[in-house]
Amino acid sequence: DGGITQSPKYLFRKEGQNVTLSCEQNLNHDAMYWYRQDPGQGLRLIYYSQIVNDFQKGDIAEGYSVSREKKESFPLTVTSAQKNPTAFYLCASTGPRAGYTFGSGTRLTVV
Amino acid sequence: AQKVTQAQTEISVVEKEDVTLDCVYETRDTTYYLFWYKQPPSGELVFLIRRNSFDEQNEISGRYSWNFQKSTSSFNFTITASQVVDSAVYFCALRPYSGAGSYQLTFGKGTKLSVIP
Questions:
Q1: What percentage of chain A exceeds 70 in pLDDT?
Q2: How far apart are alpha carbons A20 and A40 in whole angstroms?
Q3: Residues of B with CB below 8 A from A45's CB?
Q4: What pLDDT, on a 0 to 100 scale, did the predictor assign at position B105?
Q5: Which of A41-50, B13-22, B48-57, B65-74 has the lowest mean pLDDT?
Q6: Which of A42, A50, A100 is nearest residue B110 as measured by Cβ atoms?
Q7: Three state DSSP letters for B75-117
Q8: Which of A66-83 are b and which e, b meaning 16 or more Cβ less than 10 Å from the residue's Cβ?
C-alpha cells in the first residue's frame, strides 16, 4: 500500500545536537511538506518542496534545514540553532488538486 | 493571505449526543478546496473530507455530515450520535485550487472533542 513513512517515532536530542527526521513516500507525489505541531496548537509549516532539488521556507523555517535529492525522500534536520525543538513533527505529501497524505509523525524531545 | 478559524478550542459531549464543529475561513481565491482531518491520540492525521468551493452540496457519510456555506465562508462538521471513538482533535484546512501556492494547506488550530461515555 502507498503511504508515508516517518522515522523514528520518538527521538531525543541533547542540547547543541543536530538530529535528522526521515520522511519517505511511495505515492509518486511531487510535493512534500514538514509541519510542526505544539500542544494545543495547529500545524505550522516549516519547509515544503514541490519538485526534486528545490524547496521553500515555510512560516517557521529558522533552525531547520531540508534536502530533496530524491522524489521519494524529504528529510528534515533540526539544528542546534532551533532553541525550542520539542514538538511533534508531521511530514506530508500531495499531488495536484489532491488532499494531503500524512505520516504518523515523529515526537522530538530535548533532554 | 489565507486564514482558517476554529473558534471552539475544546468541546465535551456525552455519548450519543450530536455535536457540530465550526470552521470559518478567509481567502481571496475564487476557487479553493476545504478539508477536515481527524487526529486521534496516536498523532496521525486522518483525512475525512475534501470539498471544492464550486460545489456547495452538503455531504453525509454515515454519522458525519458537512455543511458548506460559501456566503458565510463556513464549512461546519457535524457528528451525529457521537461515540467515544470520535474523541480526537479535528482540523479544518484550506488550499487554493490552482496557481502559486496551490499546494499549500492552511490549517485551523483544531478543536479537541471529548466524548464522555
A1: 96
A2: 24
A3: 104
A4: 85
A5: B48-57
A6: A42
A7: EEEEECCCCHHHCEEEEEEEEECCCCCCCCCEECCCEEEEEEC
A8: bebeebbebbbebeeebe
